[in-house]
């Protein structure tokens, strides 16, 4: 069965969408069939790959999601575009068990065709994120190397543990990723040490540096591998991809 990775953090601006898009691209380059699912109402993952948001999200419709999947400019990477429609957002965010099971059933229906499904979530621990977590098999948390890196993580981890119990262990901790990493800053080194001491082996060895290429690529509708394949950002997500594959 394929792996469903939910990329989540309750804070914005930590590299969540950047990680979802570029890890998905790296996996496709590594010849892993990959689907990126945009569940953030901002639809940044969708636009980052040069696609338009849909008028209706496939996860809340009765039709097969296979009909709504589009191919991106990144060879081998498929996308289920996001929707900014308020009605769809409300339906996806409902805490109703029936709706959560519908989302999981939709995803499970395509798992045979993909090695990986990556879900880009909104920056919150609300019902929409919990719906995504309940449909996933692993959770990946990007953490920015800043002073407040650990702030709010307790609430997020409580939410994740709640979903793990509710799904009978279907969901597991996939890993924590340090982003916007600058080894020349003392603060970065302090955050690195604190996070690794607290979380241990769950933290990826790979780190994502500050790299302008990662910021510029979405404006061109491309992954960093298409926009700047020799950049530090591309190298970092290649390393992360290798770690993710090794943790299978």
From TrEMBL:
Keywords: Hydrolase. Residues 3-169 form the AAA domain. It comes from the Bacteria. Coiled coil: none annotated. Gene3D superfamilies: P-loop containing nucleotide triphosphate hydrolases (3.40.50.300). One of its GO terms (molecular function) is hydrolase activity. Its EC number is 3.6.-.-. CDD domains: ParAB_family. PANTHER family: P-LOOP CONTAINING NUCLEOSIDE TRIPHOSPHATE HYDROLASE, PARA FAMILY PROTEIN CT_582. This is Soj-like protein.
């Amino acid at each position: 069965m394929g792996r469903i990775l939910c990329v989540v953090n309750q804070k914005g601006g930590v590299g969540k969408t950047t990680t979802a898009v570029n890890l998905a691209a790296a996996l496709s380059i590594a010849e892993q069939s990959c689907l990126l699912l945009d569940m953030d109402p901002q639809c940044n993952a969708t636009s980052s790959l040069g696609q338009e948001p849909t008028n209706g999200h496939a996860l809340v419709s009765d039709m097969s999601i296979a009909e709504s999947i589009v191919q991106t400019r990144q060879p081998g990477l498929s996308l289920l575009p996001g929707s900014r429609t308020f009605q769809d957002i409300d339906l996806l965010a409902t805490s109703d068990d029936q709706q959560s099971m519908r989302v999981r059933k939709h995803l499970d229906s395509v798992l045979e065709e993909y090695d990986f499904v990556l879900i880009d979530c909104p920056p919150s621990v609300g019902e929409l994120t919990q719906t995504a977590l309940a449909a996933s098999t692993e959770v990946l948390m990007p953490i920015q190397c800043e002073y407040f890196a650990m702030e709010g993580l307790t609430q997020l981890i409580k939410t994740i543990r709640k979903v793990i119990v509710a799904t009978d262990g279907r969901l597991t901790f996939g890993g924590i990723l340090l982003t916007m990493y600058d080894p020349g800053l003392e603060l970065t080194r302090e955050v690195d040490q604190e996070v690794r001491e607290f979380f241990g082996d769950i933290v990826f060895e790979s780190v994502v540096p500050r790299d302008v290429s990662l910021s510029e690529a979405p404006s061109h509708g491309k992954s960093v591998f298409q926009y700047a394949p020799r950049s530090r950002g591309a190298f970092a997500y290649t390393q992360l991809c290798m770690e993710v594959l090794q943790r299978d």
